[in-house]
Design brief:
The complex is a heterodimer of chains A (556) and B (463). Chain A is built from 14 helices and 16 strands. By secondary structure, chain A is α+β, with helices and mostly antiparallel strands. In chain B, helix 9 runs antiparallel to helix 11, helix 18 packs antiparallel against helix 19 and helix 18 packs across helix 20. Chain B is flat, with a radius of gyration of 30 Å. Classes of the chains: A alpha+beta (556), B mainly alpha (463). The interface between A and B is medium-sized, with 33 and 29 residues.
């Protein structure tokens, strides 16, 4: 795949978004809980008071509000205490119970399905005689996808039906009569199901890895690349800064192109460049994946020629690297010697003369007249020391595990307040939306990409539908258009924030890295997955606890 | 009020199920394995209409499993995969696209157009996305292999056999990269095909290490055989054109060898094969263009007269022998024009003559010598070539196929231009009279085009 562009996790944006959403949810929940307490105390007081209706109303109101507020804060304090002072021993006991119950329910049967999948995988996967470069991504993606797709239904059903079944069978009633907090019941159940899931994922991942070794002998000893990405800027054919290169009419607009033998350049700036990035021979490895576009046939036996120039903008030093033919859709690796020559043929050192305060600037030019080279940000990177394939593979499995934990926490929390089928339905909807609809929702709300929203927001769309106005026609300028568009803004923002309520399961899909031979990066791979899991786990446990606490366990 | 007990009701349900099973069994009995057994109704119908997996071609167990497991959802699954494949192609995820293509084929293994679309996509659309010629060749092979796999899975579709042959012939032999592709067909650039460290062909496509056109000719013949063996029609072009392709592959083979500068016995033999196919196989086939009309493309006016004279009029034909002869001649003319039969017949015949080959060689060598500065030698060879050409055209036998041949005219014009330019560079007077002067004068309107071709041929960057 060519549109691989890992975006590093932004702490500021992440916390800001999480804080706003959690704050809003918390405020609404607490407000509703307070209102509920006030109302039930008011009704209680009102029904017990005697005298005139008006007098009774006001008496009940004054007492009810007071006692309601006190009861609310008492419950809140108790809740906080319950959540903070949980006993690991009791949680452990609950977890073991859940674990045993899961095994009894034949959860490990999913391993049989997994085994069947792998037994017949060879039938359905690509022809084994084909290029290994093409086979590795397919096989690796298959293994990682099979793990995540098989574990999900197993833990999903276990999590959704466990608590409601216990409540129905009144076994939970027996449990809560013992000295145990409800928070411990909730967390114990979550941990128990997680334990079962972990066992299954561990088995699947080890078997999957062994299967990969058997199916793809080339995986043994395979290394995964650890890229250091930079930022990209463009110069147009006159050498002036441009937002992007030329669009050559490719359906895929991920890359933009620079024209050969002109002033057009793609300029990469890498930060944090130091001697630790050099390999054992003291060379800097630059890897690129550049696309070609020919406007004339030229010499078809030769590819289009490209050239790197290392630039120190502060000291105005430029050192050209020898021109080379690009190898399209393949990785082109260049070992750059630190001893180079500048344009006046004076010796310069890459690390001391060209790296400017840890920043390395690389200009890429196309030397073939009338031809174009297409590039995007991740198409050129510094390749740090490679990581073993096995490490990258298990990091990807770890992300699948994190996704599983998130689903378990969500499903168990939901099952504290609703019955099994409803919990399963709700969790199922969240999984489907998180897996398949995130991109759609993002495009709809953010107005980016191919599905860029047309026809405005909610109110503008209504106006256009009623007046039969095409989305390509501009709205008539005037007061009412301003009103409509002003009102649409908060609605769109609300829709944007609502999108974040659904977890983005794409964050956990690390096959995109491993299959392409990249190490799973921390900042754009593991960290977003960990943070997203935490972002959902904490509020889900808190809400789940209060829901369980408010639940009458004696009733079915 | 129901007076039956629970047990009685259950027994009745059981009996009902048993009765319902009878038609199901009658319908679904497997196909008969021995004489006297008729098999189930569905099996019989499948056999009758050639709809069984095994009657359509080789059975892929994975494909059959997938179709069974998906039950009625095969259609939606196939649609989703098509969309996915298209997206992957747009994103240039070639590995993913190739894998999705395989999945689609598992769902639609007997849908001819699906094979055709994907194989074409790989050989023509995906291959040109790659810049390196070696990579392009890899995808052309993928497309050809896909056609081949499709024809094995559907061995009664002549179209898939024909497209396989066409990819080997036209795509490898006629594209911009034809020189490289033809070389790679014999010596594959992929190190995986080295045997004892000696590079060789991809044995899946070229097991006997032959020219691409030779393999294509066999494959075209195979497509014709499928039509004959199974009585199936193809839907690519008129049958009379479709059947000519084995011969055309031989013609392309010989012409390409000449374009590459091979003017030896091997080339003449291939022209001979083409001529033989035209005369003995294709020319002898019986065509039935209209009721009561059966013709052979090889027939001449005299042969038709003899045929009409020596045979009875077909039963039911309303007309005289004269009318019948007119009808036959009319249809033969139409078919010969449509297939260009006489032109190719004469051309192949002319090219099989040794003097023709020598004339081509001299004119070719003259242009080859030109860029190296050996102009006097080039002038001599061009002149000799033109003399030989003139002698050929005067000859009743060998000249017949070349007199009005566009390629021959171009070759002669190029020869004269080479000769004249070489003399001018040598500061020699160009004589007013020279061999093939008449043709040169007659086709002066084409001179501009010939000059540009001449420049291209002598250019050092020429592929």
């Amino acid at each position: 795949m060519t549109d691989y562009d890992p975006i590093p996790f932004s702490w500021l944006n992440g916390f800001q978004s999480w804080g706003i959403i959690c704050g809003l949810v918390l405020a609404v929940t607490l407000g509703l809980a307070l209102l509920y307490q006030v109302l039930i105390h008011f009704v209680d007081e009102f029904s017990q008071s005697r005298g005139s209706v008006v007098g009774t109303f006001f008496r009940a109101l004054s007492r009810g509000v007071g006692t309601g507020i006190v009861a609310f804060f008492a419950a809140l304090a108790e809740g906080i205490q319950d959540l903070l002072w949980m006993s690991p021993r009791r949680i452990g006991a609950m977890s073991v119970l859940v674990f045993r119950e899961s095994i009894r329910r034949k959860t490990l049967g999913v391993l049989v399905v997994f085994a069947i999948c792998f037994l017949f995988a060879g039938w359905f996967l690509s022809d084994p005689n084909r290029d290994p470069l093409l086979r590795v991504p397919i096989y690796v993606t298959f293994v990682l996808t099979a793990i995540s797709w098989l574990i999900l239904p197993a833990v999903f059903l276990l999590s959704c039906w466990g608590l409601p079944d216990d409540i129905k069978a009144r076994s939970l009633h027996t449990v809560v009569t013992k000295p145990i907090r409800r928070s411990e019941v909730l967390v114990g159940r979550i941990l128990g199901v997680t334990l079962v899931g972990t066992l299954v994922v561990a088995c699947m991942s080890v078997v999957g890895y062994l299967w990969l070794l058997r199916a793809l002998p080339e995986v043994q000893g395979l290394q995964t690349r650890v890229p250091v990405f930079g930022a990209i800027n463009f110069l147009d054919r006159e050498g002036k800064p441009a937002e992007a290169g030329v669009n050559v009419g490719d359906v895929n607009t991920f890359r933009s192109y620079i024209e050969g033998d002109t002033g057009a350049r793609a300029i990469w700036t890498f930060k944090g460049v130091n001697s630790t990035l050099l390999n054992k021979e003291g060379k800097l490895i630059l890897e690129s994946k550049i696309e070609a576009f020919r406007t004339h046939k030229g010499n078809i036996e030769k590819s289009i020629i490209s050239q790197y120039t290392f630039v120190n903008p502060t000291r105005k030093i430029r050192a050209k690297y020898q021109p080379f033919e690009i190898s399209e859709f393949r990785d082109s690796i260049k070992s750059i010697d630190t001893n180079l020559f500048d344009e006046l043929n004076r010796p310069v050192n890459l690390m001391t003369d060209l790296v400017d305060d840890g920043q390395l600037t690389v200009e890429v030019a196309c030397l073939s007249t009338g031809q174009f080279l297409g590039m995007a940000r991740p198409d050129l990177f510094i390749r740090a020391k490679d990581a073993p394939f096995v490490a990258s593979y298990f990091k990807a499995v770890l992300c699948t595990w994190l996704m599983m934990v998130l689903i378990i926490v969500f499903a168990v929390s939901v099952s504290t307040i609703v019955k099994g089928p409803v919990a399963a339905f709700l969790t199922g909807v969240i999984i489907i939306l998180g897996m398949f609809a995130q991109t759609f929702m993002k495009n709809l709300v953010d107005g980016e990409g191919f599905n860029k929203w047309k026809g405005g927001g909610l109110l503008e769309s209504v106006y256009r539908i009623v007046t039969h106005m095409n989305d390509t026609i501009e709205m008539p300028k005037g007061f009412w258009t301003n009103v409509i568009q002003t009102l649409d803004m908060p609605l769109l923002q609300f829709a944007g924030r609502s999108r974040a309520v659904v977890p983005d399961f794409g964050t956990f899909q690390m096959a995109k890295f491993v299959a392409r031979g990249y190490d799973v990066p921390w900042s754009s791979g593991l960290l977003p997955a960990v943070m997203q899991t935490l972002a959902f786990v904490i509020p889900c446990i808190v809400l789940g606890y209060f829901c369980l606490k408010s639940r009458e366990l004696e009733s079915k | 009020m129901n007076k039956l007990t629970s047990q009685q009701r259950k027994l009745m349900y059981l009996a009902g199920m048993g009765i319902l099973l009878i038609p199901v069994m009658l319908l679904g009995f497997p196909a008969a394995h021995s004489q006297g057994q008729s098999g189930g109704v569905l099996a019989q119908m499948r056999q009758q209409h050639d709809l069984g997996e095994s009657t359509l071609g080789n059975v892929d167990p994975s494909s059959a499993t997938m179709n069974l497991v998906l039950l009625g959802l095969r259609g939606p699954a196939a649609c989703m995969l098509w969309v996915q494949m298209d997206e992957q192609k747009n994103r240039k995820d070639w590995a993913g696209m190739r894998a999705t293509t395989e999945s689609i084929i598992k769902l639609q293994p007997h849908f001819q157009k699906v094979w055709q679309f994907h194989a074409w996509n790989l050989a023509y659309n995906v291959s040109v996305e790659w810049d390196a010629v070696k990579d392009r060749y890899f995808w052309v092979k993928e497309g050809a292999k896909f056609f081949r796999k499709g024809s094995e899975r559907n061995d009664k579709y002549p179209e898939l056999f024909w497209y396989y042959a066409d990819t080997l012939g036209k795509k490898i032999g006629h594209s911009d990269e034809w020189r490289q592709f033809r070389k790679y067909f014999r010596v594959d650039p992929d190190p995986a095909f080295r045997v004892n460290d000696v590079p060789g062909p991809d044995r899946e496509l070229n097991p006997d290490d032959r020219d691409n056109y030779a393999v294509a000719a066999d494959a075209f013949a195979n497509a014709n055989k499928v039509m004959d063996d199974f009585g199936r029609e193809q839907h690519i072009m008129d049958k009379s054109l479709f059947r000519s392709y084995p011969g055309r592959a031989h013609i392309d083979h010989a012409s390409t060898l000449q374009k590459e500068g091979h003017f030896d016995e091997e080339t003449r033999e291939i022209w001979g094969k083409a001529f033989q196919y035209w005369r003995d196989t294709y020319g002898q086939e019986v065509w039935h263009p209209a009721p009561f009309i059966d013709i052979h493309l090889f027939w001449t006016k005299e042969q038709i007269q003899d045929f009409v004279k020596n045979s009875e009029l077909p039963v039911g034909y309303k007309g005289s022998k004269k009318d019948y002869e007119v009808d036959l001649r009319s249809w033969l003319g139409k078919y010969q024009n449509m297939t260009n039969f006489r032109y190719w017949y004469n051309k192949c015949h002319s090219e099989t003559q040794p003097n023709t080959l020598q004339a081509h060689k001299d004119l070719y060598d003259a242009i080859v010598l030109f860029p190296s500065g050996r102009t006097s030698e080039a002038a001599r060879l061009a002149y000799e070539g033109l003399q030989k050409y003139e002698a050929i055209l005067k000859d009743e036998v060998s000249g017949l196929g070349l007199r009005d041949d566009d390629i021959a005219i171009e070759e002669v014009m190029l020869g004269v231009l080479t000769w004249k330019t070489a003399l001018e560079l040598e500061n020699k007077q160009v004589p007013d009279d020279f061999p093939m002067r008449q043709l040169w004068v007659e086709h002066q309107n084409r001179l501009k085009q010939i000059e540009s071709e001449f420049k291209r041929r002598i250019s050092p960057s020429r592929n």
